[in-house]
Design goal:
This is Cyclase. InterPro entries: KFase/CYL (IPR007325), KFase_sf (IPR037175). One of its GO terms (biological process) is L-tryptophan catabolic process to kynurenine. GO terms for molecular function: arylformamidase activity. The chain has about 325 residues and is α/β, with parallel strands linked by helices. The protein folds into 2 domains: about 280 residues, Glucose Oxidase, domain 1; about 30 residues, no CATH class. It contains 10 helices and 17 strands. It has a 9-stranded mixed beta sheet with strand order 1-17-15-9-11-13-14-4-16. Strands 2-3 form a two-stranded antiparallel ribbon. It has a two-stranded antiparallel sheet with strand order 5-6. A hairpin with a 3-residue loop joins strand 5 and strand 6. Helix 1 runs parallel beside helix 9. The two termini are about 40 Å apart.
Length: about 325
Amino acid sequence: MTVSIDRTDPEGSIARAARLCSNWDRWGAADVLGTLNHLTPETRRAAATLIQRGVSFSLSQSFDMNGPQKGWRRRTNPVHTMLDTGTDAAAGNQGFPHGIGGADDVIAMPLQCSTQWDGLGHIFDHGRAYNGRDAAKTVTSDGDLVTGIEHMAPHVAGRGVLLDVGAVIGENGELPDGFAVTTDHLLTTAAAHGVTVGRGDIVTVRTGQLTRVRREGWGEYAGGAAPGLSFTTAQWLRDSEIAAIATDTWGFEVRPNEFDDAFQPLHQVAIPHIGLLIGEMWDLDALAADCAADGRYEFWLTAAPLPITGAVGSPVNPVAVK
């Protein structure tokens, strides 16, 4: 049995994929890490040997008012406000002795407004959270009481792999909006790069959409049509035993979705059933250029979420080191 699509029956297709791909109880009833269990000290030590040149790349977009958010689901761009400034210090009105002055600031933003991780409490399936837990008792107004993203903070560091599907499958390095990236596309890209994908890897998938919107304007980048993973990749996402996956798009999966009436069906399988850590809106362009130049598509990657207690998502500044 493999994950398939019946465009007219999204609920049935999702249910079948959920049964096929479920990791419930795989790591015990109390598990809060999901697929990060694949990323072990042994795989992490091996990944550290990938650092050869010592060059590093931030895979994060900027966190500022010029971001892509337009208010959907109350998501806004970050608002950065200064609390103390050099002007205050020069005026001598900060109240500190001996001429010392300083600056302080604050930021207000949704946790998933720019480069970010989706935590395990972010998506439910028919009222069930990851590992079969009751969603109503898992995530309340107090936050994610069980699988808060703070549990993942020490673990997201290891072997990173870039699959530049935009460069291998696309035209001029970009996939068109609505392009569904299948398992075959991922495997073809890996083969073209001379890289393997396996247990404990943190996989990054470049579609080229971020490149395009930077050239043409944000448009509907935060919520509109996009290239992305096909629903049919759910089985590969589980069976490959990757630790996490991230894309340069807002929604990770292809949009419009592949059913006549559905909203983020791959999320509905990947997060509550597979327990997969999903990253979105990552900036992979500089890393992709370097990988193409030196022919190496694997690297050390550290991408810890902020340990915000009870959060179902987190901003992140992933850093790849080659």
